[in-house]
Design brief:
353 residues, TIM Barrel, alpha/beta
Length: 353
């Protein structure tokens, strides 16, 4: 069973260029993906500066992107992170929130995601406050589908270390309070989960009183460490047997939009092929289909250097790789060159770049 597949552009670092986004979404639709949620951490007007309106040019670009998705039959959504709104959801703050929803409605939303990820969670009554905010959004948006991401969106204890200890029974409380129609994003046992299993997903579904929507942090490569690697290998640890246990499966893409197409295609293959899936064969097939024969062969030859060793361990190979890919006229080769030049490294979790 292949679940609904989507992409949530929810990484730290430089957002994709508008034209790249349109081109890649066209190809993702052809692969079988059915929705896209725009939520880059660097869009400050969706996060720390959410009370401020987007500049007119940015709104026009998003409206064009929405229309492009609609022309493809791809659901378009935005992820709004009303930064720490739960600390003060008084009249003025509520009014500002509703005004923001209306401005997002104007660009044409099929989906609206309210995201509470990567913010402090040591707040009394956190689940009740988040549910209230989501229900206000549900009542005022014209989007036909509403999702949310909890503050504690994984079992990973790193969230408790960075954002404060999670309240006891948080997921159960959230699941009990949320309208059953609201989808819930979940990254798994870890923030960057190695494997999703039916047992884990069934437990989370029981806690949330609904099947989770996966926010899969592969092939994303943001942050100070991961941005020094290219995530190109085929998906592993996503067996097709998880399909009945989830509402949908969305990937958080890499900083390199065109290169993202290779692993994205392997996720489709993993579900379609079931027990017959072989991740390296899927990589080869996807690379040849998305990059062409010459570039695909080069990427496979250099896979260990690009994904295993990473930018800081390339040494003299860095210059060799740069000369090798500079000779290829292809968007993926251009992205690889940019990465080799260090232009995609993320030196910190900087949202408002």
């Amino acid at each position: 069973m292949t679940p609904e597949l989507g992409v949530i552009e929810g990484y730290f670092g430089r957002p994709w260029r508008h034209e790249d986004r349109k081109q890649v979404l066209t190809r993702l639709r052809g692969l079988g993906f059915s929705y896209f949620h725009y939520a880059p951490k660097a869009d400050a007007f969706l996060r720390r500066r959410w009370r401020e309106p987007h500049p007119d040019a940015a709104l026009a670009e998003l409206a064009e992107l929405s229309a492009h998705c609609r022309s493809l039959g791809l659901r378009f959504g935005a992820g709004l992170s009303p930064y720490e709104l739960y600390r003060d959801f008084s009249g003025p703050a509520r009014d500002a929130f509703v005004a923001k929803l209306r401005s997002l409605d104007a660009i044409g939303l099929d989906d609206l995601a309210i995201l509470f990820d990567d913010t402090r969670g040591d707040v009394a009554g956190l689940a009740a406050l988040e549910a209230e905010i989501v229900h206000i959004a549900q009542a005022h948006t014209r989007a036909r589908r509403v999702l949310m991401c909890p503050t504690y969106y994984s079992d990973d204890r790193m969230l408790d270390i960075v954002f404060g200890p999670r309240p006891a029974g948080y997921l159960e409380d959230l699941g009990r309070r949320l309208d059953p129609r609201v989808g819930v994003y979940w990254t798994g046992e870890e923030i960057c989960t190695r494997e999703f299993g039916p047992g884990h997903l069934a437990r989370v579904a029981d806690q949330l009183r609904r099947k989770p929507t996966l926010w899969d942090n592969y092939p994303v490569n943001d942050g100070p460490r991961m941005s020094r690697f290219l995530h190109l290998r085929g998906f592993t640890g996503r067996p097709s047997v998880i399909g009945p246990h989830i509402a949908a499966h969305a990937i958080n893409p890499a900083l390199q939009p065109h290169l993202t197409l290779i692993p994205a295609a392997t996720l489709v293959a993993a579900y379609r092929q079931g027990q017959g899936y072989v991740y390296m064969s899927a990589f080869r097939e996807a690379a040849h289909a998305q990059a062409g024969d010459e570039l695909a062969a080069m990427l496979e030859e250099d896979l260990h250097a690009l994904q295993g060793r990473g930018l800081d361990q390339l040494g003299e190979d860095r210059a060799r790789l740069r000369a090798r890919y500079a000779a290829v006229d292809h968007p993926m080769a251009a992205e690889l060159l940019r990465w080799l030049d260090g232009a995609d490294t993320v030196d910190g979790w900087i949202e408002d770049a």
